[in-house]
Every structure is written in structure tokens, then in C-alpha cells.
Amino acid sequence: MSELPPSTGSIRRRLTLQLMSGAAILATMLFFVVLNVARDLAESSQDNILFASATSILESAAVQGDEVVVDIPYGALSMLGNVSDDRVFYRVMAGPMLLTGYDNLPEIVRGRAEPSGFLTASYGGEDIRMVEVSRRLSLNGQAVDVAVAVAQTRNGQAETVAQMTRVALFSGAGFFLVAAVMAVLTAQSSIRPLNRLAGSVSRRGPKDMRPVAGPVPSEMVPLVTSLNRFMARLKTSLSRSEDFIAEAAHRVRTPLATVRTQAEVVLRRVDRDENRQSLREMIRAIDESSRAAGQLLDHAMVTFRTDHLEREHINLADLAEELVARLTPVAELKELQLVTKLDAGCEIYGDAILIQNAVRNILDNAIKYSQTDREILLEVLKGGERSILRVTDQAGGFPDALTTKLTERFARGVNSEGTVGSGLGLTIAKEVVEAHGGQLLLQNTDRGDGACVTLSFP
């Protein structure tokens, strides 16, 4: 298994945290903005009513005879009582003289009051909001300033502000929750193309070098373009390597066949035993080299065709019968008997050349490793929804500890000494059956006297 690259953290988690942090900042800003607006509105509403009440009282002031009289309208103070249950205070002054009201109300002194003429002060142990308005009247030919001050406690305003604070808090929390959900969905949506690309590449076989053709966001175009270029270069490199192996195997196998023929001719003419033994060893080495070259050529062909399977309907029984007919003369040279049990109803959809190559390599191994006067059984049968092709020999079986390694390239068993081979036969068979969505299973027979190789096709 390849080593995983170092990770710098999750993009989705980072994006989610950034979006949620922004949402938290915006929710906090929303809370304070709503709270300030609520305070301003509550205070502005109270100020407007106070000013209207004071103006209404001031307009009722008039000169009658030698004095200034004030007839306080009922609505001037009742409008304050309708807004809340706060207490209301007032004071009417004509110059330095108190006409009516509370004499001990705070004075609105220039510099203490707000620019609008309002004042927030403490009176009777409670916070009050008050305003003072004035007008000038003529009394006995002299100007007299009439000042009206109206004040109201701020309990109602505080309650209104508290209520608006709760509303602002709930609004901010609701905004944050909605924004958090949107952040999670946005983060998942943003990395979905990455997950789709990773899934598309990970589902491919080890030799699938097709370019990624699906639509991707513009930000991922450079990544996909680089990936496609890399796969194109890798495909070209693999193709050149396979072509080189195939060409090398072909060029080596032909002269080896010529050398072997000449060696056999010389062997018939040599009389000395030591020379004949040397020639036999040379012929065996030539056979091994020729066998290796042939299987390298087969493996290169299998590697190429598994990427481009030429599928057709194949009757496994017919294919097995044809192979048995071809290999029977080779088996008879070792006094081996090829026995078949074929179910004519087993059909699969695949590449006939590859499957034939895989089965031929398995039969060839069975023939090579079997002693004389033995049977090799080739079965084709139905196994549920799968088609099974099984080769059983009497060659001693597989070492239990090596069954998982024998399908690796150039791996051979402990009983291979003295037997011509390259260690690619089972590798080829495994790659072929897996390219067709099947499985290769290596087992020993129940009696322990042989091996059983099973190809299972969907």
C-alpha cells in the first residue's frame, strides 16, 4: 500500500469554520445594531411625546388681568400615561414664580441639557427623562418668560429596551444558526467536485489511463488538465515499455528456436557423455529462455488488451474443449490424461483471446508439474449466477504458505526446480479473470495430492 501524503487539514472543515466565524461576527454586529436602533427608537418615542405634552401645556398659558394663568389640558398628561405606567411630573414657571407643578424638579441648565433640550436625571430615586419649553408673554407691558417642564420615569422605556434586546438576541442567534447550516451546506457543495473527481479516479483499474472528461468547476480545470497530461505521459511510457518487452521477447524467441534446433542436431552426433550432458543443459537453458520470452510476450499482450477488452459471447465449454484438443499431444508425451466435465450452458461475455490464454497457462502448468501416468481434470460448471472453470491436477499441490504469493510476477513454488518456467502463468491468469470482474482461487485437493485452480466469472 502506498504511503499517504502529509495532510494539512480538511478543506471542508476549514471552509466551514471560516464561514461560521463570519456568521458569528455578522450575528454579533446584527445584535448590537438592532439593540442600538431599539434604544434610539424607544428614547425618540418618549422624547416626542414629552415634547408634545410640554408644548400642549405651554399653549394653554395665557394672561388674564394682572396674572398668567395655565389651564392644563387633559390630553397633555394623559398621552404620557397611555404609553406606559410610568409616573409623570410637570412644572410651570412664570419668570421666577411657580404657577403649578413640582417645584423641586431638576433644573435644565444650559450646558447640562442635550442639544435638543432634553435631560436625563434622577428624581425621587428614579431615573427620569424631562424636557423644558418656554415662550414669552406680555404682562402689564412687561415681557414674562413662561417655562413648562414635563418629566417621566424611564421604567417603560427600560422594559421596551429589554424586550427589544431579547428580540435582537433571538434574531442574532437565529441568523447564526441559519448561517451555520448554510456554511456546512456550502462547504459540502464546494468540495463535492473534489470528492467526485477522487471517486472517479479511485474506481478505475490500475491500467485505466483515460483522461478525466466530466465537467468540473473552473478552479479545478488546471488540476484536471495536469492530471490528464500526467496520465497521458504515463500511458505513453507504459505502452512503450510493453511494446519493448513484446518486441524483445519476439526477437529473442526466434533465434533461440534456431539455436535449440542446432543443439539437438549436435547432440545426436556427440558420443562423449560429458559433452552430451553439456548439450542437454544448454537445450534446457534455451527452453527456459524461450519459455520466459514467450510468457513475457503473452503478459505484454494481456496487459494491453485488459484496457481494451474485445468482448463477445463465449461458450466456456467450447473454449475448454478446443484447448484440450491442442494440448492433448503435449500431455500424451508425459503419459498424462486430460479429462473433461463440461456444462454446455456456461456462457460469459468477455475477451476470448485473453480467457483462452489464461486457461492455457493453467493447463500448461498442470502438465509441466504432473508426474507420468496422472490425470488432469478440466471442469466447466454453473455456480449460482457465476460460471466456473476449474483445473485439478495430481502434481502434489501448492505449499500452503505460498498460495497468496504464487500469483505475483516471477513467483514460483518450491517444487519448480528442474521445471522450465518463468513464474508468469498464474499472474496472467489472475489479471485476465480480474479484468472480467471475476476471481482466481488457488486450493489444494481434499486428498492433498494435487492443486485446484478455479476461475470464477460473473
Shape descriptor reads rod-shaped
Overall mean pLDDT stands at 79
Q: Estimate percent helicity.
A: 40-55%
Number of domains: 3
Q: Proportion of β residues?
A: 15-25%
Tally of helical runs: 8
- Strand tally: 14
Per CATH, the architecture of the largest domain is 2-Layer Sandwich
Gyration radius over CA: 50 Å
The ordered H/E elements are HEEHEEEEEHHHEHEEHEEHEE
Could you list some keywords that capture this structure?
single chain, 458 residues, Heat Shock Protein 90, five-stranded antiparallel sheet, 52% helix, rod-shaped
Describe what you observe in this structure.
With 458 residues, the chain is α+β, with helices and mostly antiparallel strands. It has 3 domains: 150 residues, Beta-Lactamase; 105 residues; 150 residues, Heat Shock Protein 90 (2-Layer Sandwich). The protein has 8 helices and 14 strands. The strands form 4 sheets. The chain has a 5-stranded antiparallel β-sheet. The chain has a 5-stranded mixed β-sheet with strand order 9-11-12-14-13. Helix 1 runs antiparallel to helix 3 and helix 4 packs antiparallel against helix 5. The longest helix is centred in the N-terminal third of the chain and has 50 residues. It is rod-shaped, with a radius of gyration of 50 Å. The two termini are 27 Å apart.
Q: What does the secondary structure layout of this molecule look like, with pairings?
A:
Layout: H1 11-60, E1 61-64, E2 67-70, H2 74-83, E3 88-94, E4 97-101, E5 118-123, E6 126-139, E7 142-153, H3 155-202, H4 221-269, H5 273-305, E8 312-315, H6 316-333, E9 337-342, E10 347-350, H7 352-369, E11 375-383, E12 386-392, H8 425-435, E13 439-444, E14 451-457
Parallel strand pairs: 9-11
Antiparallel strand pairs: 1-2, 3-4, 3-7, 5-6, 6-7, 8-10, 11-12, 12-14, 13-14
